Amino acid sequence: MKDMNELLEDQLKDLFSAENQLTKALPKMAKKASNEALKEAFTSHLRETEGHIERLEKIGKQLDIKLTGKKCAAMAGLIEEGKEVIDEEETGPDTDALLVAAAQRVEHYEISAYGTARTMAEIMGEDKVVELLQMTEDEETAADEKLTEIATGELYPVISEGESEEEEEEKMAGVSRR
Asked: 161 lies in which domain range?
């Protein structure tokens, strides 16, 4: 049975791997996005992610933990799922909405993972570690909220408008949707 130190170490290694994988995926997502706000959100989050890695390295030094040597399988899967959207030939609001969905899955995973590690650090009385993990968790939550704002404010209305126009055209042509 593992002790709390080993459990926290495992979580931190997982996060370190996840963040490093994400630094390779975010530029591809930004390149694929056609919406300027979405491109900027991905680019901005890349800079934040690099900061998350620096915080994790600081935590690793503080706890005398080597953070390398583990691959986060969950992040690898989430990135692979997002890659399906990146590899599609289409661009536009529909593709951007799918990019948001993929990115939000990543954010939700990270929010959960940082929350778990933070709780472990709290139980261990590692107040400085708790503070650093909470800062990152807050940034991940803000990134998720920004993606929701872009989707609901810019992407979904355009997609819905396009659907309404298609329905009108079909009605005028005498074709009904079933």
From this structure: 4-169
